[in-house]
Design a protein that fits this description.
Layout (H helix, E strand, L loop, with lengths): L1 E3 L7 H11 L9 H11 L5 H4 L7 H12 L21 H12 L2 E2 L11 H12 L12 H15 L9 E4 L1 H13 L5 E6 L3 H10 L2 E6 L9 H7 L4 E7 L11 H14 L2 E5 L24 E6 L1 H4 L7 E4 L2 H14 L5 H11 L3 H25 L2 E2 L7 E5 L8 H12 L1 E2 L1 E2 L13 E5 L4 H14 L2
Parallel strand pairs: 2-12, 4-5, 4-6, 6-7, 7-8
Antiparallel strand pairs: 1-5, 3-9, 8-9, 10-11, 11-14, 13-14
Helix pairs in contact: 6-14, 7-14, 8-9, 8-13, 15-17
């Protein structure tokens, strides 16, 4: 079990992480100090001697002098950031997408589709705009969307929820996570994460002042280490966050693992924050919602979104489903984060969630075909490829190619091969735990996937 005693910017991890991030690539964001010092060297502020070359100055010359003084480059102001966020830099997803463009690389890094969402959903958005549904929505969601979410949850999880009291619409699942954490976690509360984890979990918990404990999932199966998990729980454990299907590994938590987590939560009176945004992208078994387990709904917040399932990640429509006593805190935080979410997009999201089952079946078939192209290609290139049973990600071991860590490998992959992957060490409190692994995504059209595979076959040695 990896434990960070507090979310402190000067922890040993943050120092390692800053060093790691500085070493990533030339495309990595420079520190503000470097940016400013570069600017000062290139554009030095004129000195007084350079401004005055004569002892007698005419009126016009005096005006010129004032103009020159006015154009001096001011001394840079120090970058300011709250201590709880000092350790965090530009997200790895943003960095990798930027470098993909810079180097003309095929972007199999950030998990956004390079194809568009379904026409019927886009048409519903256009219709809502044309009908004048363009002002602030009700804070916790447009009623038609709240009802559609509740109906979908009944069909998927077998649970009946009150759309008015137990469903909160948010600006993407990331905001649902933030509202849940900020609304329900107090400073010094202990929260358990499974590493590797989506990076916003740690950042949001640090903003809440939580103490983070991690339980590490390790290849090849990324199974839950039972004894390590049991030892992570204590009387101070306020919540555990679970992501199934799991980003970045593609793991799906088994029924036995979920039952174990449930029993420990009930025993220790612990909440569960269940991130289930990939629930429709499963390939070998049906998704199991944590809230559906006996005794768990009353202590579970289920987090989900529209973007992954409908290839509309830019719309940022998410939601949190929770019993009323937990929804209260979530809505309090949501009210002061975004207050409300895009009105016309909510109407369109309601239409999306009422799609027939045939849509979801076709979605699975389409992604299964994409996954096959990428997995077969990665195996042919020589990676050790780990099972991906859900999401649209695949994790591989890169060590046979001789690079000391995932950062160095990803740098080479971009510069010399022209393909972008995500170094997984950024998803751990201890980067060493992920240094042998990188993540690829297959939420791209087949031509893009084949191009990436071909580049790796030709150039990766």
């Amino acid at each position: 079990m990896q434990r960070l005693p507090t979310c402190h910017p000067h922890s040993s991890w943050s120092v390692e992480n800053r060093g790691m991030l500085r070493s990533v690539l030339p495309f990595k964001r420079r520190t503000s100090r470097n940016l400013f010092s570069t600017a000062t060297k290139r554009f030095p502020a004129p000195t007084m001697a350079s401004l005055s070359t004569t002892t007698t100055i005419s009126s016009s010359c005096s005006d010129d002098k004032v103009a020159l003084e006015d154009n001096k480059v001011p001394a840079p102001l120090p970058v300011q950031v709250a201590k709880r966020l000092e350790k965090f830099k530009t997200t790895i997803f943003t960095q990798m997408s930027m470098v993909a463009i810079k180097h003309g690389a095929v972007n199999l890094g950030q998990g956004f589709p390079n194809f568009d969402g379904p026409e019927f959903v886009k048409e519903a958005a256009i219709q809502a705009i044309q009908e004048g549904k363009n002002q602030y929505a009700r804070g916790h969601g447009v009623p038609v969307l709240n009802s559609a979410i509740a109906d979908r949850f009944l069909k998927d999880a077998g649970l009946t929820v009150d759309p008015e009291k137990e469903v909160t619409v948010t600006s993407g699942c990331t905001e649902a996570i933030a509202a849940t954490v900020l609304g329900l976690i107090n400073p010094d509360d202990e929260v358990i994460l499974f590493a590797p984890f989506y990076d916003s979990y740690e950042a949001t918990l640090c903003m809440a002042g939580a103490k983070i404990k991690t339980v590490t999932l390790r290849p090849p199966e990324f199974a839950v280490p039972v004894e390590e998990l049991k030892s992570a729980f204590s009387k101070n454990t306020r919540a555990i966050m679970i992501n199934t299907p799991h980003n970045p590994t593609g793991k799906m938590f088994t029924r036995e693992e979920l039952d174990l987590i449930a029993s420990l939560c009930i025993e220790n009176d612990t909440l569960v924050f269940a991130d289930e945004v990939y629930d429709k992208l499963v390939f070998e078994a049906d998704h199991i919602s944590m809230a559906s387990l006996p005794g768990m709904y009353e202590r579970t917040v289920t987090l989900n979104s529209l973007g992954k399932t409908f290839s509309l990640t830019g719309w940022k429509i998410g939601w949190a489903i929770a019993p009323p006593h937990l929804t209260w805190g979530i809505r309090q935080a949501h009210s002061f984060l975004t207050f409300a979410t895009s009105t016309p997009m909510q109407w369109a999201a309601a239409a999306a969630l009422r799609a027939p089952d045939s849509y979801y079946e076709e979605l699975k078939r389409d992604y299964a075909a994409k996954k096959e192209i990428l997995v077969e290609g990665l195996n042919a290139v020589g990676f050790t490829v780990y099972p991906s049973r859900g999401t649209y990600f695949v994790v591989v071991d890169h060590t046979r190619f001789g690079f000391e860590d995932d950062i160095k490998f990803c740098e080479h992959l971009i510069r010399e091969v022209g393909v972008v992957a995500i170094p997984t060490s950024v998803f751990y409190l201890n980067p060493e735990d992920g240094k042998n692994l990188v993540r690829f995504t297959f939420c791209k059209d087949e031509e893009t996937l084949r191009t990436a595979v071909q580049r790796m076959k030709e150039k990766l040695r």
